[in-house]
Specification:
By secondary structure, the chain is mainly alpha-helical. It has one domain. It contains two helices and no strands. Helix 1 runs antiparallel to helix 2.
Length: 93
């Protein structure tokens, strides 16, 4: 048997092995993408609720800052305490 005749079988096995490896990795990645999509969909409600809460807190902070600017002593104390704690309030626009 010639040396050239010995190449087709090992080469074919190598090609099949690489193909199977790529196919398996593709399957795993598609499955993980599907799972991540499900996780994201499950968290969507929580994300919307968090955004709503953030808007409400910003509105409350802006109203408190507005009261403090108007001279309300309690609001001034709240704003000063927030500044002391490192929380910056954006002035109402």
């Amino acid at each position: 048997m010639k040396e050239q005749d010995a190449w087709p079988l090992p080469l074919a096995l190598l090609v099949v092995a690489v193909f199977l490896m790529v196919a398996f990795q593709t399957f795993v990645l598609v499955r993980e993408r599907t799972n991540l999509g499900r996780i994201r969909a499950a968290q969507e409600t929580n994300i919307q609720e968090a955004a709503k809460l953030r808007r409400e807190l910003q509105d409350l902070a802006a109203a408190t800052a507005k009261l403090a600017d108007a001279g309300d002593a309690g609001a001034k104390a709240v704003v000063e305490e927030m500044h002391r704690l490192g929380v910056n309030i954006k002035p109402p626009g």
